[in-house]
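Reopening: ECF RNA polymerase sigma factor SigM still failing for me.
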Amino acid sequence: MDMDEIYRTYFATVYRYIRSISQNESLAEDVTQETFFKAIKKIGQFRGDCDMRVWLCQIAKRTLYDHVKKEQKQISVSEPEEAASPLNLEEKMAEHSEAIKIHTVLHQMQEPYKEVFSLRTFGELSFTEIGTLFEKSENWARVTYYRAKTKIKEEFENGTYM
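Support: Ran it again with your exact input. Result attached.
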């Protein structure tokens, strides 16, 4: 499969994944484009031991984290009145807040819960597709997803996500 075909096949999936995490269309577009740019550079490192969609979403997730870290660094470096003045920046950070909390909890979770939850929620894969990726049953994917979801709810209720 050449990069043009990979781009056409997986662009929408990667975009939806990042859009659901970031809740920001513009950021999702930028990160998705950068993801495919990075994928072109690293295609030789793709070993094929996971689905191409999973590999691309992992690159996208790391790219989004890099953008968020860079944005937070810029806010903390700027003067207080400069950081407080643009209301849209504050709103943007508030939108990211919940997504960052969820991803903090996800980052702390063990595999396969982390990956199954991400694939189902952000990658919009069916339980059948997830089961196939892990060489397990559809039922295994369902149970794993609901256990991950329960764990996330517990972490939020207990306030232990930080």
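Residues 22 and 83 are 20 Å apart (CA to CA). If you still see a failure, please send the error message rather than a screenshot.
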